């Protein structure tokens, strides 16, 4: 067992997050104990079990390999599609493990794990350098009224909406629309994580171009040799599913009925976790396929908690037991997508104004 992390020994990624959160962003009190006391209390859950982390990694990759083989080589195309969807579901799980590794929550300081997850990230259009930069910013700025859009979906206030041009409103609505979720493999991952990142900082994010070339170059090679079907069934269908699921997870985690955003003067790191990050309630099967990422309010309070300890942290921390919730039920998905802007006067997300 790796000991719980003291403040001075936070993982590199989360040390960066902590450094980005000023002391003023921690309010003096929340419930029976201060926000600082609550943050300190969560450190006990950062103790990791390396054997469990390796088992999760190896077993998940084995399941992924089995489903990939089914998608590649099954003799009947509907069966290939079915295996592709199962592969996509498992890609989401491995991505959530990748996400935990990047936070330093599992397999800390393991060079082998770093290599495994680097290769995995490159193969799914998520270059680690790009992910760390945008995701660490997201954790340090989640639910701020201005500036929280980097690494997340933009949210504007009703007043900001009224000041936007028709073109700006259209772009804003498209980014937050179900269509962007459906096309996430192209919009969020191919363009956002790879092309845009590389064009913005070529030397820093050369891996964005490398990931793009790796994925789409493989498609070209497969087509040249008359086996485009291998790429289509073995990568595109699974990644289409995984990208849709992942993009929606990210959307619903911070855009849900009851969620809040705050002015920078009123924003605190703890409130952004407890009041602006959802608990996406799932059954045991989907909790496995998503590596407990539905406990997102717990994760945002302390990103160094390993995925397998998030339920325990929620159970043993009273302040985390009354979060805003959502599910994968159609009515809840509809409710999340109906949210458009934040009404400061009502202090809640509302739909788009009719005019």
From TrEMBL:
<feature type="domain" description="Fatty acid desaturase">
    <location>
        <begin position="76"/>
        <end position="317"/>
    </location>
</feature>
<keyword id="KW-1133">Transmembrane helix</keyword>
<feature type="transmembrane region" description="Helical">
    <location>
        <begin position="53"/>
        <end position="73"/>
    </location>
</feature>
<keyword id="KW-0812">Transmembrane</keyword>
<feature type="transmembrane region" description="Helical">
    <location>
        <begin position="181"/>
        <end position="199"/>
    </location>
</feature>
<feature type="transmembrane region" description="Helical">
    <location>
        <begin position="232"/>
        <end position="251"/>
    </location>
</feature>
<dbReference type="GO" id="GO:0016717">
    <property type="term" value="F:oxidoreductase activity, acting on paired donors, with oxidation of a pair of donors resulting in the reduction of molecular oxygen to two molecules of water"/>
</dbReference>
<feature type="transmembrane region" description="Helical">
    <location>
        <begin position="205"/>
        <end position="225"/>
    </location>
</feature>
<dbReference type="GO" id="GO:0006629">
    <property type="term" value="P:lipid metabolic process"/>
</dbReference>
<keyword id="KW-0472">Membrane</keyword>
<dbReference type="InterPro" id="IPR012171">
    <property type="entry name" value="Fatty_acid_desaturase"/>
</dbReference>
<dbReference type="Pfam" id="PF00487">
    <property type="entry name" value="FA_desaturase"/>
</dbReference>
<feature type="transmembrane region" description="Helical">
    <location>
        <begin position="79"/>
        <end position="100"/>
    </location>
</feature>
<dbReference type="InterPro" id="IPR005804">
    <property type="entry name" value="FA_desaturase_dom"/>
</dbReference>
<protein>
    <submittedName>
        <fullName>Fatty acid desaturase</fullName>
    </submittedName>
</protein>
<dbReference type="GO" id="GO:0016020">
    <property type="term" value="C:membrane"/>
</dbReference>
